[in-house]
Design a protein that fits this description.
The protein is mainly β. Helix content is 0%, strand content 46%.
């Protein structure tokens, strides 16, 4: 079973940047696509960025050009570089894995990391 530990969130002003990290356990990490998801208060969790095990990426329209997803298979770690943050990016951010390009998140969700964008 793969487990995820997200980190790197915090409070940032609009226009600022954060880099999220996701450490994953399990030897099957390399077999799946990885995704970053977020859930804002009162809203459903949504996929914001995904990366296949071959390096293909896709992004939600709301964050295109501002966020970049990457992965380091040797470290079983995924990253989300977030630039030009907006108040509407405020949410709890989670990572998970799934078959590409389904990316619904097939494993147990971690605790997530809170990102708050506010002046």
């Amino acid at each position: 079973q793969v487990q995820f530990v997200e980190s790197g969130g915090g409070l940032v002003q609009p226009g600022g940047s954060l880099r999220l990290s996701c450490a994953a356990s399990g030897t099957i990490f390399r077999a799946y696509g990885l995704g970053w998801y977020r859930q804002a208060p009162g809203k459903q969790r949504e996929l914001v960025a995904g990366i296949s095990n071959g390096g293909s990426t896709n992004y939600a329209d709301s964050i295109k050009g501002r966020f970049t997803i990457s992965r380091d298979n040797a470290k079983n770690t995924a990253y989300l570089q977030m630039n030009s943050l907006k108040p509407e990016d405020t949410a709890v951010y989670y990572c998970n894995a799934d078959f590409w390009p389904t990316m619904k998140g097939r494993f147990t969700w971690g605790q997530g990391t809170q990102v708050t964008v506010s002046s």
